[in-house]
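User: Show me sequence and structure for the first protein, then do the same for the second.

Assistant: Starting with the first protein.
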Amino acid sequence: MTEAGLRLHDAAGSKGSKMSASVHLSRGSSVVVQPGPRDVRPYFWAVSLVWLAILAWGLEVQGKLLAGHWLRLIPWIILLALVNLLPLDGWHAHMAPDLPIAAAAALILSPIQASVVGFLSGFDSKEFKGQVTPSRGVFNRSQLGLVYYVGSWLAHIVTSRTTEPRLILPLTFLSLGVMCVINYALVGLGITIEHGYPFKNVVARLRVGTSVDFALAFVASAVLAAMLAALYEDIHSWVLLAILGPTLLGRQALMRSQMFVDTSRAYRSREQALHQLTQQASEERSDERRLIAADLHDEVLQPLFKVTLMAHVLKADLSSGRLLDMDQDLPELIAAAEAASNLLRELIGDLRRSAIGRGGLAPALERLAHSLSGGTEAPHIHVKVALVSTDAVTELSLYQIAKEALSNAVSHSQARNVWIDLAEDQTMLLLTVTDDGIGFDPLLDRAGHFGIAIMRERASAVGAQFFVDSSPNRGCKISVSFPR
């Protein structure tokens, strides 16, 4: 339920949403980002054992009441199971739009009844596909059982002291809020333990939509739950059928709202990334000019200097009448001029074949690593690059990606070592940049940081696949694979 509240807080982007949503912990996609998960099973089993202890105590105290009214629970279980089988996928979790029904169950049923309903109805479609481990599946159900129990217990504590009908709506708000907070805490803590992300960042990432949308959806959910609880005394389980329609409509509104939020975020990110890419393009042109200047200085300037020197020697021979010396000095002048001409011709040919200087990609990466590792605080850069053959566009793109990755590692990773590898075989050209620094969560949006997005766009432009493998305190590995 917490992630329900989180999803609703952010994901209930539609102002017309009639409900909240609850979330179950899931593994999430690891196609692009593949952080190594920690062993979170002790936490899963600890939460599950807490719920089992509460269940055992409840059966001991209210076992006869539960057995005598079990038929009353079936419609609730069926309805909530149906809603749970229609989740909305999110970041490391998914959410089911069941919060209004769950809040009504907390008001109407006893705490132990509500807890059993939450546990038995916590279906996950991935369970049927074998994509959820037993410990994770039991945790998902147990944390829902705990959420339902505490929400119902709180509601019954208040109603035991007053039976004022006018308090049903405030009571629904109170119960709903507590259920959301507990769901947030249990699922968010599981993600924090498993992946090492800071808890506040997990909470921020789990949010969907805006604060205003969340507040409106939360109010709508509470009102709907209060109406269901008030009508249940008159028409009993039939009211559950009436509530199913608004619940499913709310799910669709929630899904469309999240699509709008994701699209807006992607548009803003691309716009900012394009602006930064324009600035980087100008800087890279300066880098390319510096590389050309370095090649001219190292390869051509010395032969040209010898030409100039030999010209002065010949001039001195002529002025002093040493004609015999000219026979020896003139061939040296001709040889120096030919060497300078040949080197310049080779350099021009290299530049026509490669936009990143003489020798192509491998020497350019070695020069880049040498220039970035010059500072006293800079990490040690280990270079293992092979001479590869590819077209100029791909070569330039790979160089730019490597430059961005190395610059990020040197500036932000606090790494001691950085490894850059370039290799190829008959089917694939592979570039990797790895560091042993502090790492980061690639899925979190960081204001002003578009390096990952820019590298991904550049890789996509040349048909390459781009991967990021990082998590907090575990370094980072960036891989670009280009099929032949």
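Switching to the second protein now.
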Amino acid sequence: MADLTPRPVGRRYPRNVVIVVTEGETERIFFNSLKQRNLNLEIRLYKGKRTNARQLVENCVKRIQMEELDLEDGDIIICAFDVDNNSQKDLKQALDTAEKNGITVALSNPCFELWYLLHFRDIDHRISSKEVRTELSTHVKHYDKTQDYREILTPRRRGAVVRAKTIAKKRCITGMDGYSDIGNNPCTSVHLALNAIERLIKKNLQK
């Protein structure tokens, strides 16, 4: 069972906490790679016990309460999951619950590795999870979803964000924090989660 230990009373150092609840190991490894010292924030990662999008978001709601997150003061909670293996009903409920509770969604269709692949090339056609991983292996030799590829991906992240935004405008996401046409393939909102973290880092550095 996932640890729901609350934040110690009165603790505000580091100034902010970023909690990421993930569906799988690949997402956890990626967000773990964002950890850096001296950012005045702490990134905590939890793998959801269940992989249904609705249940993952409900777990995030519990995290907000149990860890006493202050979303108005800058704390962030992110829920990362794939569209695959979720019904449209569960996806809609998950996104509605996330919006009501201030949860940032890092959604991927068909799979999280699409975000990795966008570090190397444009994708503007429907693609399966198998095709994504096959294509990714041509750019990352011996690709293994359990490995940390921060050294390869980080220098290419700006390009990935640009490509993700291009897909978003055409296919699946409107506005900065809104999600629409979630069944469209391909689409990703991982860059929105990264943007939220980067904005928080910049805000805290100014204080």
